[in-house]
Amino acid sequence: MDNREADHERRQPAVKDSREGRFFYPWERTLDRLVTPFEEFIHRQTTSGIILLATSFLAVVLANSPFRDTYLHLTHAPVVFQIGGAALQMSWQHLVNEGLMVFFFFVVGLEIKREIRVGELSEPRKALLPAIAAMGGMLGPAVFYWFLNPSGEAARGWGIPMATDIAFCVSALVLLGRHVPVALTIFLVSLAIVDDIGAVIVIAIFYTQSIHLPSLGWAAALFAVLVSFNLSGVRRGLPYALTGILLWLFLLKSGLHATIAGVLVAFCIPARAHFSPDLFCSSLEELIARYRGSCRIDENVLSNTELQSVINRMDDEIRLADSPLRRMEDRMHLPVALLVIPIFALTNAGIEMEWGSIEATLRHPVTLGVVSGLFLGKMAGIYLFSWAGIRLGLVSLPAAVTIRHVLGVGFLGGIGFTMSIFIAELSFPGNPEFLRMAKSGIVLASLLSALTGILWLRFFCSKPVPVGRDV
After folding, report:
1. How much is the pTM?
2. Which helix (H) or strand (E) holds 254?
C-alpha cells in the first residue's frame, strides 16, 4: 500500500462489520447501547401517561411554591406573531390551548379515521358496543354534574366530566398486564375514540361564544380545498399542512374553537396506499436488480449517480406503498405524547392549593359536580348502557370479556385529565375560582377512578377466560 492509499485509509471514519454488512462510526456501537433502552421506553404505551402525570405534578408544585408568581406570569405572558402589517397576539396559555393542541386533535382525528376504516369501528356490529358505552359515558357524567349545578355560571361546566383520557386509561390497563383480556383494551380504546368524537362535537356546538360568518365561510372553502386534495390523490403532507394553517387562522377568527382544524385536516388525509402489494413487489424486485448491477460498478453511493437514482426511486416507491394516514399517525404520535401533552399539562394543571380551605373546595358544587360526574357518572353510564344493550340483544361482549370487566372500564373511563382540563378552560374563562374548583375535581376524580378501576380489575375480575364462556 503506497503513502496515498495509507493516508486515505486513516481518513475513513467508518468501520465495516463483515458479518452484518454494515458500517459503524467509532462511537456508534456505544451510543446504540445507550440510546436503544431509551428509545424502547419512549415507545411504550405507558410512557405518555407517566410523562403526563410527571408534568402535571410539576405544574401543581410550581403553582404552590415560591415560584408561583413567576409560573403564573409565564403562563399568561403575551405572545405576538407578526408578518408585515398583520399581527396575531395571544397569551402563552391561549397559544397552547388553541394552537399547540391542534396537533393533539390532529392525531385524535387520525386515530378516529383509522378506527372507522379498519379498526373496531369499521364493522357496525363491533362498533355498536363501544358506541353505546361511550354514549352512556357522556350522558351519565353530564346528568350527575347538572344535578348539582342546574343553573347559573357553574352550569356551563356540564361538559367537563364527559371526556376520557386515552393515554391514562390505556396505561392503567397495560399495568394490569395479563390480568385483563386483550379484547378489553381494544374495547376501551374504541370507547375512548367515540368519546373523543363526542367531545369534539360538544366543543364545536356548546363552547362557541359567537360566530363570525365571513371567516367561517373562508374556513369552509379551505376545508373544501382539503377534500379536493384527498379526492385528487395528493399524498404529500406539505399541501395539507399549509392549507391547515390557513384553516386554523380562519376558525380562530370565526369564533369556533380553532383546534377543530386538526380533526378536519386529519379526516382529509388519504387512508389508501397508491400501490397494491403485487405491484409494489414487482417494482421493488426490478429496483433491487438495478441496485445490484449498479453496485458492481461502484459501491460508493456518493460517487455513483445511478445508485443514487435507484435509492431515490426506492424511497418514492416505499412511500407510495404506505398509507399516508398511517405514516402521519406514526410520525406525530411521539411528538404529541412527549411534547404537546406535557406542555399542555405544565401550562394548565397548575392548581393553587389553599390548604386552609380544602374542606370548602371539596364541598363546592363545581368540585362535587366534576368528581361525581367523572367517578360515578362515567361508571354508571358505561356500565348501565352496556348492560342494557346486551340484555336487549343489540350487542354482545367481546371474547373473554365479562360484564365485570365492563364495570372496571367504567371506572377507568373516569380518568378525564387532558380533555377535561381543556373543556374546563373553555367553561370558565373569566372565573378563576370556578376554574380552580373544576381542576381540583378533575385531579381528585381521575385519581379515584384510576385507583378503583385498577383494584377492581385486578382483584374482582377473573383472568382471561376461554372464548364463548358466558358472562
Report:
1. 0.74
2. helix 237-254
